[in-house]
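In the previous chapter we treated chains in isolation. Here, by contrast, the input contains two separate entities that must be folded as one system, with a combined length of 585 residues.
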Amino acid sequence: MSLVGAPASELLSLMEKGETTAVEVMQAHLDQINQTDDKVDAYLHVDAETALKKAADVDARRKAGESIGPLGGLPIAIKDVLCTKGVPTTCSSRMLENFVPPYDATVMQKLTAADGIMIGKVNMDEFAMGSSTENSAFKKTKNPWNIEHSPGGSSGGSAAAVAAMTAPLSLGSDTGGSIRQPAHFCGVVGMKPTYGRVSRYGLVAFASSLDQVGPFANDVQGAALLLEAIAGHDQLDSTSVPKEVPSYTASLDEPLKGLKIGIVKEHYVEGINEEVEQTVRDAYKVYESLGAELVDISLPNSKYCVAAYYIIAPAEASSNLARYDGVHYGHRAENFDSMIEMYSRSRGEGFGTEVKRRIMLGTYTLSAGYIDAYYLKALRVRRLIRNDFDEAFKKVDVIASPTSPNTAFKIGGLINDPLAMYLEDIYTISANLAGLPGISIPAGISKAGLPIGLQLLAAPFEEEKLLRAARMFEKETGWTSKRPTLN
Amino acid sequence: MSLSQEDVKKVASLSRLALSEKELAQMQEHLGQILDYFEILQEVDTENVEPMAHAIELHNVFREDEIRESLPREEALANAPKTDGKYFLVPEILRQDK
Protein backbone atom coordinates (compact mmCIF):
# COMPACT_ATOMS: atom_id res chain seq x y z
CA MET A 1 0.00 0.00 0.00
CA SER A 2 1.01 3.59 -0.54
CA LEU A 3 2.52 5.46 2.37
CA VAL A 4 1.33 8.81 1.05
CA GLY A 5 -2.35 9.48 1.55
CA ALA A 6 -2.48 6.95 4.40
CA PRO A 7 -3.94 8.19 7.68
CA ALA A 8 -1.65 8.85 10.64
CA SER A 9 -2.95 5.85 12.60
CA GLU A 10 -2.10 3.48 9.76
CA LEU A 11 1.41 4.87 9.35
CA LEU A 12 2.01 4.59 13.10
CA SER A 13 0.82 1.03 13.18
CA LEU A 14 3.03 0.06 10.21
CA MET A 15 6.03 1.63 11.92
CA GLU A 16 5.28 -0.08 15.22
CA LYS A 17 5.00 -3.44 13.49
CA GLY A 18 8.32 -2.81 11.76
CA GLU A 19 6.71 -2.95 8.32
CA THR A 20 8.04 0.48 7.51
CA THR A 21 10.29 3.07 9.12
CA ALA A 22 9.98 6.76 9.91
CA VAL A 23 12.70 7.39 7.31
CA GLU A 24 10.69 5.57 4.62
CA VAL A 25 7.57 7.46 5.59
CA MET A 26 9.42 10.78 5.51
CA GLN A 27 11.12 9.98 2.20
CA ALA A 28 7.81 9.00 0.59
CA HIS A 29 6.27 12.33 1.62
CA LEU A 30 9.35 14.30 0.50
CA ASP A 31 9.10 12.52 -2.87
CA GLN A 32 5.43 13.46 -3.03
CA ILE A 33 6.40 17.11 -2.44
CA ASN A 34 8.89 16.85 -5.32
CA GLN A 35 6.24 15.36 -7.56
CA THR A 36 3.32 17.61 -6.76
CA ASP A 37 4.41 20.88 -5.24
CA ASP A 38 5.46 22.59 -8.45
CA LYS A 39 1.74 22.48 -9.25
CA VAL A 40 0.21 22.90 -5.80
CA ASP A 41 2.72 25.42 -4.40
CA ALA A 42 1.95 24.68 -0.77
CA TYR A 43 5.50 24.73 0.61
CA LEU A 44 7.66 27.76 1.36
CA HIS A 45 10.53 25.96 3.04
CA VAL A 46 11.56 22.29 3.09
CA ASP A 47 14.68 20.99 4.81
CA ALA A 48 14.76 17.35 3.71
CA GLU A 49 18.08 16.60 5.33
CA THR A 50 17.02 17.67 8.83
CA ALA A 51 13.64 15.93 8.51
CA LEU A 52 15.29 12.65 7.45
CA LYS A 53 17.86 12.93 10.23
CA LYS A 54 15.10 13.33 12.81
CA ALA A 55 13.23 10.39 11.30
CA ALA A 56 16.38 8.25 11.51
CA ASP A 57 16.69 9.22 15.16
CA VAL A 58 13.13 8.06 15.87
CA ASP A 59 13.84 4.80 14.05
CA ALA A 60 17.01 4.22 16.08
CA ARG A 61 15.19 4.84 19.34
CA ARG A 62 12.32 2.60 18.29
CA LYS A 63 14.75 -0.14 17.36
CA ALA A 64 16.50 0.19 20.72
CA GLY A 65 13.16 -0.38 22.41
CA GLU A 66 12.94 3.15 23.82
CA SER A 67 9.54 4.72 24.24
CA ILE A 68 8.43 6.84 21.32
CA GLY A 69 6.06 9.81 21.51
CA PRO A 70 2.49 9.54 20.20
CA LEU A 71 3.34 11.28 16.91
CA GLY A 72 5.96 8.53 16.36
CA GLY A 73 8.03 10.15 13.61
CA LEU A 74 5.13 11.33 11.42
CA PRO A 75 5.78 14.16 8.93
CA ILE A 76 3.83 17.30 9.81
CA ALA A 77 3.53 20.46 7.68
CA ILE A 78 3.60 23.72 9.64
CA LYS A 79 1.86 26.95 8.73
CA ASP A 80 4.48 29.66 8.39
CA VAL A 81 2.87 31.67 11.19
CA LEU A 82 4.40 29.49 13.92
CA CYS A 83 7.86 30.39 15.18
CA THR A 84 10.39 27.67 14.48
CA LYS A 85 13.81 28.10 16.03
CA GLY A 86 16.50 28.54 13.38
CA VAL A 87 14.01 28.02 10.54
CA PRO A 88 12.61 30.98 8.57
CA THR A 89 9.13 32.11 9.66
CA THR A 90 7.78 34.59 7.13
CA CYS A 91 4.00 34.75 7.68
CA SER A 92 4.07 34.90 3.85
CA SER A 93 5.04 38.56 4.19
CA ARG A 94 7.87 40.64 2.72
CA MET A 95 8.01 42.16 6.17
CA LEU A 96 9.35 38.91 7.66
CA GLU A 97 11.05 37.54 4.54
CA ASN A 98 14.40 37.23 6.35
CA PHE A 99 13.12 36.57 9.86
CA VAL A 100 14.57 33.54 11.64
CA PRO A 101 13.03 33.10 15.11
CA PRO A 102 15.40 32.58 18.03
CA TYR A 103 12.85 30.34 19.76
CA ASP A 104 10.19 27.69 19.12
CA ALA A 105 6.47 28.24 19.58
CA THR A 106 5.10 26.15 22.46
CA VAL A 107 3.17 23.98 20.00
CA MET A 108 6.43 23.25 18.15
CA GLN A 109 8.08 22.21 21.40
CA LYS A 110 5.14 19.95 22.15
CA LEU A 111 5.21 18.53 18.66
CA THR A 112 8.89 17.69 19.00
CA ALA A 113 8.35 16.21 22.47
CA ALA A 114 5.69 13.93 20.94
CA ASP A 115 8.14 12.90 18.17
CA GLY A 116 6.31 14.69 15.38
CA ILE A 117 8.68 15.88 12.64
CA MET A 118 8.28 19.09 10.69
CA ILE A 119 8.45 18.27 6.98
CA GLY A 120 8.24 21.92 5.91
CA LYS A 121 6.72 25.36 6.39
CA VAL A 122 3.65 26.06 4.31
CA ASN A 123 2.06 29.03 2.60
CA MET A 124 -0.74 31.23 3.97
CA ASP A 125 -2.44 34.55 3.49
CA GLU A 126 -0.06 37.24 4.70
CA PHE A 127 -0.25 37.43 8.51
CA ALA A 128 -3.24 35.03 8.28
CA MET A 129 -5.43 37.75 6.78
CA GLY A 130 -7.52 36.35 3.97
CA SER A 131 -9.67 33.44 2.85
CA SER A 132 -7.84 32.29 -0.29
CA THR A 133 -4.04 32.18 0.34
CA GLU A 134 -3.79 34.65 -2.56
CA ASN A 135 -2.55 37.29 -0.13
CA SER A 136 0.81 35.52 0.20
CA ALA A 137 3.73 37.70 -0.87
CA PHE A 138 5.50 34.65 -2.28
CA LYS A 139 3.16 32.38 -4.21
CA LYS A 140 -0.42 31.34 -4.78
CA THR A 141 -1.25 27.90 -3.47
CA LYS A 142 -3.62 25.85 -5.61
CA ASN A 143 -6.39 23.49 -4.61
CA PRO A 144 -5.17 19.92 -5.19
CA TRP A 145 -8.67 18.94 -6.38
CA ASN A 146 -8.51 21.50 -9.18
CA ILE A 147 -5.54 23.78 -9.53
CA GLU A 148 -7.58 26.60 -11.02
CA HIS A 149 -9.33 26.91 -7.68
CA SER A 150 -8.24 28.37 -4.38
CA PRO A 151 -7.38 26.09 -1.46
CA GLY A 152 -9.11 28.59 0.83
CA GLY A 153 -7.33 30.48 3.56
CA SER A 154 -5.68 31.68 5.48
CA SER A 155 -4.23 28.19 6.23
CA GLY A 156 -4.44 27.23 2.53
CA GLY A 157 -0.95 25.73 2.49
CA SER A 158 -1.70 23.50 5.48
CA ALA A 159 -4.93 22.21 3.91
CA ALA A 160 -3.41 21.75 0.44
CA ALA A 161 -0.38 19.92 1.91
CA VAL A 162 -2.65 17.29 3.48
CA ALA A 163 -4.94 17.07 0.43
CA ALA A 164 -1.95 16.66 -1.89
CA MET A 165 -0.77 13.79 0.34
CA THR A 166 2.54 15.50 1.16
CA ALA A 167 1.82 15.15 4.89
CA PRO A 168 -0.80 13.17 6.83
CA LEU A 169 -1.03 16.00 9.36
CA SER A 170 -0.45 19.74 9.46
CA LEU A 171 -0.88 22.69 11.77
CA GLY A 172 -2.78 25.84 10.94
CA SER A 173 -4.29 28.76 12.79
CA ASP A 174 -7.90 29.91 12.84
CA THR A 175 -8.93 33.48 13.63
CA GLY A 176 -12.22 33.59 11.70
CA GLY A 177 -12.35 30.25 9.92
CA SER A 178 -8.79 29.99 8.63
CA ILE A 179 -8.56 26.26 9.43
CA ARG A 180 -12.12 25.16 8.79
CA GLN A 181 -12.76 26.93 5.48
CA PRO A 182 -9.61 25.59 3.76
CA ALA A 183 -10.39 22.13 5.18
CA HIS A 184 -13.82 22.39 3.48
CA PHE A 185 -12.25 23.61 0.20
CA CYS A 186 -9.59 20.87 0.16
CA GLY A 187 -11.61 17.90 1.44
CA VAL A 188 -9.65 17.32 4.65
CA VAL A 189 -10.41 17.46 8.38
CA GLY A 190 -9.60 20.78 10.07
CA MET A 191 -10.27 21.75 13.65
CA LYS A 192 -10.24 24.97 15.63
CA PRO A 193 -10.00 24.25 19.36
CA THR A 194 -11.68 26.26 22.11
CA TYR A 195 -9.99 29.61 22.68
CA GLY A 196 -7.32 28.96 25.33
CA ARG A 197 -7.12 25.20 24.73
CA VAL A 198 -3.83 25.52 22.81
CA SER A 199 -0.98 27.90 23.65
CA ARG A 200 -0.52 30.90 21.37
CA TYR A 201 3.06 31.47 22.51
CA GLY A 202 5.14 31.76 19.35
CA LEU A 203 2.10 32.03 17.09
CA VAL A 204 2.63 35.33 15.28
CA ALA A 205 -0.29 37.42 16.50
CA PHE A 206 -3.12 38.59 14.23
CA ALA A 207 -6.13 39.10 16.53
CA SER A 208 -5.16 37.89 19.98
CA SER A 209 -8.66 37.34 21.38
CA LEU A 210 -9.61 35.15 18.38
CA ASP A 211 -6.45 33.30 17.23
CA GLN A 212 -6.13 29.57 17.93
CA VAL A 213 -3.72 26.96 16.59
CA GLY A 214 -5.31 23.73 15.41
CA PRO A 215 -4.80 20.50 13.46
CA PHE A 216 -5.46 19.38 9.90
CA ALA A 217 -5.52 15.68 9.08
CA ASN A 218 -6.70 13.26 6.44
CA ASP A 219 -9.04 11.62 8.94
CA VAL A 220 -10.70 12.46 12.27
CA GLN A 221 -8.36 10.23 14.26
CA GLY A 222 -5.38 12.22 12.97
CA ALA A 223 -6.96 15.47 14.12
CA ALA A 224 -7.63 13.99 17.58
CA LEU A 225 -4.06 12.70 17.81
CA LEU A 226 -2.48 16.00 16.85
CA LEU A 227 -4.78 18.07 19.07
CA GLU A 228 -3.97 15.84 22.01
CA ALA A 229 -0.26 16.49 21.42
CA ILE A 230 -0.50 20.30 21.25
CA ALA A 231 -3.28 21.12 23.73
CA GLY A 232 -2.81 22.23 27.31
CA HIS A 233 -2.00 25.12 29.59
CA ASP A 234 1.18 27.10 29.03
CA GLN A 235 2.72 29.51 31.51
CA LEU A 236 3.96 31.56 28.58
CA ASP A 237 0.41 32.28 27.36
CA SER A 238 -1.72 33.83 30.08
CA THR A 239 -4.87 33.26 28.00
CA SER A 240 -4.30 29.51 27.82
CA VAL A 241 -6.69 27.76 30.16
CA PRO A 242 -5.44 25.58 33.04
CA LYS A 243 -7.70 22.66 32.32
CA GLU A 244 -6.70 19.06 31.90
CA VAL A 245 -6.51 17.65 28.38
CA PRO A 246 -8.56 14.47 28.00
CA SER A 247 -7.36 11.70 25.72
CA TYR A 248 -9.27 12.55 22.56
CA THR A 249 -8.01 9.42 20.81
CA ALA A 250 -9.04 7.05 23.60
CA SER A 251 -12.77 7.86 23.43
CA LEU A 252 -12.93 8.63 19.73
CA ASP A 253 -14.58 5.44 18.57
CA GLU A 254 -17.35 5.46 21.16
CA PRO A 255 -20.49 6.72 19.40
CA LEU A 256 -22.47 9.36 21.29
CA LYS A 257 -25.79 8.04 22.54
CA GLY A 258 -28.73 10.38 22.39
CA LEU A 259 -26.73 12.93 20.40
CA LYS A 260 -28.70 16.12 19.82
CA ILE A 261 -27.77 18.05 16.70
CA GLY A 262 -28.77 21.68 16.37
CA ILE A 263 -29.88 23.06 13.03
CA VAL A 264 -29.77 26.82 12.90
CA LYS A 265 -32.72 28.31 11.06
CA GLU A 266 -30.82 31.53 10.27
CA HIS A 267 -28.21 29.55 8.32
CA TYR A 268 -30.41 28.77 5.36
CA VAL A 269 -31.06 32.08 3.76
CA GLU A 270 -29.96 33.64 0.50
CA GLY A 271 -26.43 33.21 -0.80
CA ILE A 272 -25.86 29.56 -0.04
CA ASN A 273 -24.85 27.27 -2.87
CA GLU A 274 -27.47 24.57 -3.57
CA GLU A 275 -25.08 21.65 -3.62
CA VAL A 276 -23.51 22.78 -0.35
CA GLU A 277 -26.93 23.06 1.28
CA GLN A 278 -28.02 19.65 -0.06
CA THR A 279 -24.82 18.00 1.19
CA VAL A 280 -25.35 19.38 4.67
CA ARG A 281 -29.01 18.34 4.66
CA ASP A 282 -27.92 14.83 3.62
CA ALA A 283 -25.45 14.83 6.51
CA TYR A 284 -28.34 15.56 8.91
CA LYS A 285 -30.05 12.43 7.58
CA VAL A 286 -26.90 10.40 8.17
CA TYR A 287 -26.87 11.51 11.79
CA GLU A 288 -30.57 10.75 12.11
CA SER A 289 -29.95 7.24 10.80
CA LEU A 290 -27.32 6.87 13.53
CA GLY A 291 -29.90 7.66 16.19
CA ALA A 292 -29.21 11.36 16.63
CA GLU A 293 -32.04 13.77 17.23
CA LEU A 294 -32.28 16.88 15.05
CA VAL A 295 -33.32 19.99 16.94
CA ASP A 296 -34.23 23.33 15.36
CA ILE A 297 -32.50 26.19 17.10
CA SER A 298 -32.13 29.89 16.59
CA LEU A 299 -29.05 32.10 16.76
CA PRO A 300 -30.83 35.43 16.34
CA ASN A 301 -27.66 37.54 16.26
CA SER A 302 -25.79 35.40 13.75
CA LYS A 303 -26.35 37.86 10.94
CA TYR A 304 -24.21 40.40 12.80
CA CYS A 305 -21.18 38.10 13.09
CA VAL A 306 -19.33 39.25 10.00
CA ALA A 307 -19.67 42.94 10.85
CA ALA A 308 -18.65 42.43 14.50
CA TYR A 309 -15.70 40.29 13.46
CA TYR A 310 -14.41 42.69 10.82
CA ILE A 311 -14.37 45.43 13.43
CA ILE A 312 -12.81 43.42 16.25
CA ALA A 313 -10.19 41.46 14.30
CA PRO A 314 -8.72 44.44 12.40
CA ALA A 315 -8.78 46.54 15.58
CA GLU A 316 -6.66 43.93 17.36
CA ALA A 317 -4.50 43.51 14.24
CA SER A 318 -3.78 47.22 13.96
CA SER A 319 -2.46 47.13 17.49
CA ASN A 320 -0.56 43.82 17.14
CA LEU A 321 1.09 44.78 13.88
CA ALA A 322 2.38 48.06 15.30
CA ARG A 323 5.43 46.02 16.35
CA TYR A 324 6.68 45.92 12.75
CA ASP A 325 8.58 49.16 12.83
CA GLY A 326 11.80 48.19 11.09
CA VAL A 327 13.79 48.41 14.32
CA HIS A 328 14.08 45.04 16.06
CA TYR A 329 13.40 42.70 13.17
CA GLY A 330 11.63 42.68 9.84
CA HIS A 331 11.94 44.87 6.78
CA ARG A 332 13.46 48.34 6.98
CA ALA A 333 13.19 50.80 4.10
CA GLU A 334 16.43 52.12 2.64
CA ASN A 335 15.52 55.75 2.10
CA PHE A 336 14.00 58.01 4.72
CA ASP A 337 14.62 61.36 6.34
CA SER A 338 13.25 60.78 9.82
CA MET A 339 12.29 58.10 12.29
CA ILE A 340 8.59 58.45 11.47
CA GLU A 341 9.34 58.18 7.78
CA MET A 342 11.41 55.08 8.45
CA TYR A 343 8.40 53.51 10.14
CA SER A 344 5.89 54.37 7.45
CA ARG A 345 8.09 53.52 4.48
CA SER A 346 9.19 50.21 6.04
CA ARG A 347 5.57 49.31 6.71
CA GLY A 348 4.33 50.62 3.35
CA GLU A 349 6.91 48.47 1.55
CA GLY A 350 6.74 45.41 3.81
CA PHE A 351 2.99 44.84 4.03
CA GLY A 352 0.64 43.71 1.26
CA THR A 353 -2.72 45.25 0.34
CA GLU A 354 -5.01 43.22 2.62
CA VAL A 355 -2.78 43.70 5.66
CA LYS A 356 -2.66 47.44 5.03
CA ARG A 357 -6.44 47.50 4.60
CA ARG A 358 -6.99 45.79 7.95
CA ILE A 359 -4.49 47.98 9.77
CA MET A 360 -6.24 51.05 8.34
CA LEU A 361 -9.67 49.68 9.25
CA GLY A 362 -8.58 48.90 12.80
CA THR A 363 -6.86 52.23 13.25
CA TYR A 364 -10.00 53.99 12.06
CA THR A 365 -12.48 52.12 14.26
CA LEU A 366 -10.23 52.61 17.30
CA SER A 367 -9.62 56.29 16.69
CA ALA A 368 -11.05 59.12 18.75
CA GLY A 369 -14.71 59.73 17.99
CA TYR A 370 -15.32 56.27 16.49
CA ILE A 371 -14.31 53.78 19.16
CA ASP A 372 -17.75 53.73 20.81
CA ALA A 373 -19.72 53.47 17.60
CA TYR A 374 -17.57 50.70 16.14
CA TYR A 375 -15.23 48.84 18.48
CA LEU A 376 -17.22 48.90 21.72
CA LYS A 377 -20.47 48.32 19.84
CA ALA A 378 -18.92 45.24 18.19
CA LEU A 379 -17.75 43.92 21.58
CA ARG A 380 -21.29 44.26 22.95
CA VAL A 381 -22.71 42.42 19.95
CA ARG A 382 -20.03 39.79 20.54
CA ARG A 383 -21.47 39.12 23.98
CA LEU A 384 -24.97 38.75 22.51
CA ILE A 385 -23.61 36.26 19.97
CA ARG A 386 -22.01 34.27 22.78
CA ASN A 387 -25.26 34.38 24.78
CA ASP A 388 -27.12 32.92 21.78
CA PHE A 389 -24.72 29.96 21.77
CA ASP A 390 -24.99 29.48 25.53
CA GLU A 391 -28.76 29.21 25.13
CA ALA A 392 -28.45 26.86 22.14
CA PHE A 393 -26.06 24.50 23.91
CA LYS A 394 -28.61 24.03 26.69
CA LYS A 395 -30.71 22.24 24.05
CA VAL A 396 -28.16 20.54 21.79
CA ASP A 397 -24.73 18.86 21.91
CA VAL A 398 -23.39 20.09 18.61
CA ILE A 399 -24.50 22.50 15.91
CA ALA A 400 -24.16 21.26 12.33
CA SER A 401 -23.94 23.65 9.41
CA PRO A 402 -22.13 24.33 6.16
CA THR A 403 -18.51 25.39 6.71
CA SER A 404 -18.75 28.03 4.02
CA PRO A 405 -21.58 29.01 1.64
CA ASN A 406 -19.73 27.90 -1.51
CA THR A 407 -17.23 25.34 -2.74
CA ALA A 408 -13.69 26.50 -3.57
CA PHE A 409 -13.88 29.61 -5.72
CA LYS A 410 -11.51 30.23 -8.60
CA ILE A 411 -8.18 31.86 -7.93
CA GLY A 412 -8.66 35.55 -8.66
CA GLY A 413 -12.43 35.25 -8.28
CA LEU A 414 -12.93 37.43 -5.22
CA ILE A 415 -9.60 39.10 -4.68
CA ASN A 416 -10.74 42.54 -5.83
CA ASP A 417 -13.91 42.52 -3.77
CA PRO A 418 -12.83 42.42 -0.11
CA LEU A 419 -16.37 42.59 1.27
CA ALA A 420 -17.52 39.59 -0.79
CA MET A 421 -14.46 37.69 0.44
CA TYR A 422 -15.30 38.59 4.06
CA LEU A 423 -18.87 37.30 3.63
CA GLU A 424 -17.49 33.83 2.77
CA ASP A 425 -16.64 33.55 6.49
CA ILE A 426 -20.27 33.80 7.60
CA TYR A 427 -20.53 30.30 9.13
CA THR A 428 -17.08 30.10 10.69
CA ILE A 429 -16.62 33.49 12.33
CA SER A 430 -19.09 33.07 15.19
CA ALA A 431 -17.03 30.24 16.73
CA ASN A 432 -14.08 32.61 17.07
CA LEU A 433 -16.15 35.43 18.50
CA ALA A 434 -17.71 33.04 21.02
CA GLY A 435 -14.50 31.06 21.68
CA LEU A 436 -16.06 27.73 20.65
CA PRO A 437 -14.38 24.66 19.22
CA GLY A 438 -15.31 23.79 15.64
CA ILE A 439 -14.41 21.18 13.07
CA SER A 440 -14.90 20.82 9.34
CA ILE A 441 -15.09 17.28 7.97
CA PRO A 442 -15.47 16.09 4.38
CA ALA A 443 -19.14 15.39 3.61
CA GLY A 444 -19.38 15.26 -0.16
CA ILE A 445 -18.02 16.25 -3.54
CA SER A 446 -19.76 18.64 -5.91
CA LYS A 447 -20.65 17.81 -9.52
CA ALA A 448 -17.66 19.90 -10.55
CA GLY A 449 -15.45 17.66 -8.42
CA LEU A 450 -14.82 20.04 -5.53
CA PRO A 451 -15.03 18.92 -1.88
CA ILE A 452 -17.82 20.02 0.45
CA GLY A 453 -17.36 20.11 4.21
CA LEU A 454 -19.69 19.86 7.16
CA GLN A 455 -19.02 22.11 10.13
CA LEU A 456 -19.74 20.99 13.68
CA LEU A 457 -19.53 23.39 16.64
CA ALA A 458 -19.71 22.56 20.33
CA ALA A 459 -19.69 24.38 23.66
CA PRO A 460 -16.31 25.51 25.05
CA PHE A 461 -13.95 22.62 25.92
CA GLU A 462 -16.24 20.01 24.36
CA GLU A 463 -13.60 18.94 21.81
CA GLU A 464 -14.07 15.33 22.85
CA LYS A 465 -17.74 15.41 21.97
CA LEU A 466 -17.01 17.21 18.72
CA LEU A 467 -14.43 14.65 17.62
CA ARG A 468 -16.65 11.71 18.54
CA ALA A 469 -19.55 13.19 16.61
CA ALA A 470 -17.25 13.78 13.63
CA ARG A 471 -15.91 10.23 13.86
CA MET A 472 -19.44 8.78 13.80
CA PHE A 473 -20.09 10.57 10.51
CA GLU A 474 -16.72 9.60 9.04
CA LYS A 475 -17.20 5.94 9.91
CA GLU A 476 -20.66 5.87 8.38
CA THR A 477 -19.88 7.77 5.17
CA GLY A 478 -16.19 7.25 4.38
CA TRP A 479 -15.83 10.70 2.84
CA THR A 480 -12.49 11.30 4.57
CA SER A 481 -10.88 8.50 2.56
CA LYS A 482 -11.39 10.32 -0.76
CA ARG A 483 -8.20 11.66 -2.33
CA PRO A 484 -7.78 13.95 -5.34
CA THR A 485 -6.13 12.76 -8.56
CA LEU A 486 -3.04 14.84 -9.00
CA ASN A 487 -1.93 15.01 -12.60
CA MET B 1 -20.58 56.07 4.94
CA SER B 2 -18.08 57.79 2.70
CA LEU B 3 -14.57 58.65 3.75
CA SER B 4 -12.93 61.75 2.38
CA GLN B 5 -9.47 61.67 0.89
CA GLU B 6 -8.31 63.65 3.91
CA ASP B 7 -9.76 61.05 6.29
CA VAL B 8 -7.93 58.27 4.49
CA LYS B 9 -4.66 60.20 4.56
CA LYS B 10 -5.06 60.84 8.26
CA VAL B 11 -5.72 57.16 9.01
CA ALA B 12 -2.70 56.16 6.89
CA SER B 13 -0.57 58.56 8.88
CA LEU B 14 -1.90 57.29 12.22
CA SER B 15 -1.22 53.75 10.96
CA ARG B 16 2.34 54.73 9.98
CA LEU B 17 1.77 53.44 6.47
CA ALA B 18 3.29 55.22 3.48
CA LEU B 19 0.74 54.65 0.71
CA SER B 20 0.86 55.59 -2.96
CA GLU B 21 -1.86 57.79 -4.48
CA LYS B 22 -3.30 54.69 -6.14
CA GLU B 23 -3.38 52.81 -2.85
CA LEU B 24 -5.04 55.76 -1.11
CA ALA B 25 -7.77 55.90 -3.75
CA GLN B 26 -8.41 52.16 -3.50
CA MET B 27 -8.47 52.32 0.29
CA GLN B 28 -10.97 55.14 0.15
CA GLU B 29 -13.32 53.04 -1.97
CA HIS B 30 -12.93 49.74 -0.11
CA LEU B 31 -12.94 51.15 3.42
CA GLY B 32 -16.06 53.13 2.57
CA GLN B 33 -17.87 49.97 1.44
CA ILE B 34 -16.79 48.04 4.50
CA LEU B 35 -17.78 50.83 6.90
CA ASP B 36 -21.18 50.97 5.19
CA TYR B 37 -21.61 47.29 5.86
CA PHE B 38 -20.85 47.86 9.57
CA GLU B 39 -23.99 50.03 9.81
CA ILE B 40 -25.96 46.79 10.19
CA LEU B 41 -24.82 46.72 13.85
CA GLN B 42 -26.86 49.83 14.57
CA GLU B 43 -29.99 47.63 14.43
CA VAL B 44 -28.86 45.71 17.50
CA ASP B 45 -30.05 46.89 20.90
CA THR B 46 -26.95 46.70 23.10
CA GLU B 47 -28.29 48.78 25.97
CA ASN B 48 -27.00 47.28 29.25
CA VAL B 49 -24.79 44.76 27.45
CA GLU B 50 -21.21 44.65 28.67
CA PRO B 51 -18.51 44.61 25.98
CA MET B 52 -16.87 41.17 25.70
CA ALA B 53 -13.13 41.46 24.98
CA HIS B 54 -12.40 37.74 25.43
CA ALA B 55 -14.77 34.81 24.98
CA ILE B 56 -13.09 32.69 27.64
CA GLU B 57 -12.70 35.19 30.43
CA LEU B 58 -9.81 34.50 32.77
CA HIS B 59 -9.03 36.92 35.57
CA ASN B 60 -5.92 37.68 37.61
CA VAL B 61 -3.50 35.29 35.99
CA PHE B 62 -0.34 35.20 38.07
CA ARG B 63 2.80 33.12 38.03
CA GLU B 64 5.78 32.83 40.33
CA ASP B 65 8.26 35.64 39.86
CA GLU B 66 11.28 33.49 39.11
CA ILE B 67 14.55 34.38 37.50
CA ARG B 68 14.84 32.69 34.13
CA GLU B 69 17.39 32.67 31.43
CA SER B 70 16.90 35.41 28.89
CA LEU B 71 17.78 35.56 25.23
CA PRO B 72 21.52 36.11 24.72
CA ARG B 73 22.29 39.52 23.20
CA GLU B 74 23.67 38.02 20.00
CA GLU B 75 20.46 36.11 19.34
CA ALA B 76 18.28 39.07 20.25
CA LEU B 77 20.14 41.19 17.70
CA ALA B 78 20.37 38.50 15.03
CA ASN B 79 17.29 39.73 13.12
CA ALA B 80 17.95 43.44 13.52
CA PRO B 81 17.90 45.44 10.28
CA LYS B 82 20.74 47.56 11.65
CA THR B 83 22.95 46.90 14.65
CA ASP B 84 26.45 47.62 15.89
CA GLY B 85 26.59 44.31 17.71
CA LYS B 86 25.47 45.92 20.97
CA TYR B 87 22.37 47.92 20.15
CA PHE B 88 19.52 48.23 17.66
CA LEU B 89 20.45 51.24 15.53
CA VAL B 90 17.82 53.80 14.51
CA PRO B 91 18.07 57.11 12.69
CA GLU B 92 18.99 60.18 14.68
CA ILE B 93 16.01 61.48 16.66
CA LEU B 94 17.44 64.46 18.56
CA ARG B 95 19.83 66.84 16.93
CA GLN B 96 22.33 68.78 19.00
CA ASP B 97 22.48 71.79 16.70
CA LYS B 98 18.75 72.59 16.72
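DSSP finds three helices and no strands in chain B. Chain B has a mean pLDDT of 92. Compare these points with the single-chain example from earlier in the chapter.
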